[in-house]
């Protein structure tokens, strides 16, 4: 739980007493490769903070095509946020790509922490704001850039992920075919 404290204190300092209270709301879970944390159709009970491993958040359209919305690595938050915040069944999946660990937080726990500790309300607000900004940047990039530009931006922002994630997932995330990704990779290494 020390890593949880470090993660929170990157935004707001905590006393030992505050952290002793906060940590009671989180549950540590070890996750195996190919294990699902969220499965379409299931109740979305938790939001997850990644401690270790790499995860993908995706949905499958009516034609059976997979669309990756997000990758998550150390210190990133993830879940099916529509299901989590609206307390509806999941429309997405969260799958582990590498063995890892997460801490789990319920919506009730999140709300109680925010209500009782201004520091946690501030922490969650900053995290949500940063996530929203990242989402808008991703949408703008998808709408207004070439596949080459999307690949270069992904490589620049996440150089570690480009080597740790199977290329087919990178291609799905960028909205290109596996063959196009191979060309983009070749072009950028010239």
Question: What is the secondary structure topology, with strand pairs?
Answer:
Blueprint: H1 2-9, H2 16-22, E1 27-31, E2 36-38, E3 46-52, E4 55-60, E5 66-72, E6 77-78, H3 81-86, E7 93-96, E8 100-106, H4 107-116, H5 118-144, H6 147-157, H7 159-164, H8 167-174, H9 178-188
Antiparallel strand pairs: 1-8, 2-7, 3-6, 3-8, 4-5, 4-7
Task: Give me a quick take on this structure.
This protein has about 190 residues and is an alpha+beta fold.
- What distance separates the N and C termini? 44 Å
CATH superfamily annotation of the domain at 2-112: Jelly Rolls
The helical percent reads: 40-55%
Radius of gyration: 18 Å
List keywords for this structure.
single chain, 190 residues, alpha+beta, Jelly Rolls, four-stranded antiparallel beta sheet, 49% helix, 22% strand, globular
